[in-house]
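Hi all, long-time lurker, first post. I run a small reading group and we've been trying to get comfortable going from sequence to structure in the token notation. Rather than ask abstract questions, I figured I'd post a concrete chain and ask someone more experienced to write out its structure so we can walk through it together at our next meeting. Sequence below, copied exactly:
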Amino acid sequence: MTRKLSVFLAALLLASPAMAAVHIIAESTDSTVAIKYATDGERVRAFALDIIVDKGNIVGISDFIRGESTAEKPGYGIFPGNFGRYITVDAATGEVDSWDPNGYTPIADPCDPGALGGLGTSGITIEMGALYYPTGDDSPSAPPTSGQLFTLTLSEPANVTVTLNEVRGGVVLTDPDIAATVDLAQATNVVVSGGASAGAELLSASHPDYTEWVAVGKPACWAYPRQCHGDADGLKETSAAGVSYVSQKDLNVLVAAWQVKEAPFGPGVAAVENGICADFAHDQDGSSATGFHRVGVTDLNILVANWLVKEAPQGAGVPADCGGSLVR
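-- Answer (accepted) --
Happy to help. Here is the structure in token form:
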């Protein structure tokens, strides 16, 4: 009987698919959380993950690679949901023109099936894959079996939880005959004690507007990469005509803060929700006799100059060169 049971168990094991463990890890600092992975030796081809916070919003993503994985720069730099939107492939050569267009990040568009709300909300969906040559698991260009995927910046202290997005693919190994067993224990309710509003240095001390940024309370929105070009909320708006970063919601912020006088002549732009975010020129207008305001004609001109400028592939997009660290 014992021998028959042993034969049965052996047959069952042979009939079952092999399993491999993939551990997702969230490691927090005072203001950011790094999302990492580690396997038991298997190679991961792609990740599709949901990240949510229980308070505030996710306002920035950084520390990810773009493009092919190489021995010099290994990692997951192919973003399937955004590839067709931002990446152009030369029809004659098959080569990618550039891996660095504005907006090409791992964050899935909120309009994609199964995707969460995106930056500026409490949840994002990320998609990251690896492309490398030679293509085997032993390739020197393959991503390692452990490493960091990206770093997130939060608007305030919160608990961060990572889950699989099965609709978008979950975790896929390079060997299709092996199913991934994903361990999320180290990425569930991870405490991040700070946030962008807690004084994180989102602008470097060498930034030309650093002193002014400190003087107005280190607003996180000044670190949006297009804020100095009229993008008050750091978010893109999608329409049938294409995607724009400077549009109606940004105008609404500017209108609400328009020529609000600073003390002693008025409550100041800080009294208006997100009002300082419409100070695109990062300066004051007015006089000591009539009062100063931070949002005025100069800021309106900046917004108008970039109004409804389309992002790729419909247009060149608004330059993401304002010098902040919140990639949106």
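A couple of things your group might point at:
Residues 7-17 have pLDDT under 50 and may be disordered.
The longest helix spans residues 2-15.
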